[in-house]
Structure prediction request, 143 residues.
Amino acid sequence: MAALVVAALLSGSAARADREATSTAIAVIVGRNSFVTTVSRDELRELYLRRQRIWPNGTRAIPINLPPDNPAREDFSKLVLGRSTRELVPYWNARYFEGITPPVVLPSPAAIRVYLTNEPGAIAYVPISEVDDTCRTLLELER
Prediction:
């Protein structure tokens, strides 16, 4: 029995590694039970720059970032926000004095998926290879 569990875990890791090697896309995701069903690049930009902080239904929008040194974050920043993570530092310094905080940072795609499961107003991005059945993909971004 234990050997079957180990084999299943290893095959899942191998499948994930195969997907990573063949795809460099980033998936914009929400939790499986989230009320959010669509999002555009423009809406993402507004959410992640915290210019939009409420969803149309009145629920607080919670954008989630990966750590600054994560390649997916750098790619997301350039593709959606039009700036590198370093170029965003002055933007966030200025927002701080307006009482606006940057998006929450979670350490890994796994932590993001768990958070999304428990927070229907949250939205995040992960490498497409990190998408599983706990979340829904709203948009794919090619790096």
User: Anything to note?
Assistant: The beta strands are 26-31, 62-65, 104-105, 122-127, 135-141. Residues 2-22 form the longest helix (21 residues). The longest strand covers residues 135-141. The helical segments are 2-22, 41-48, 71-81, 89-96, 109-118.
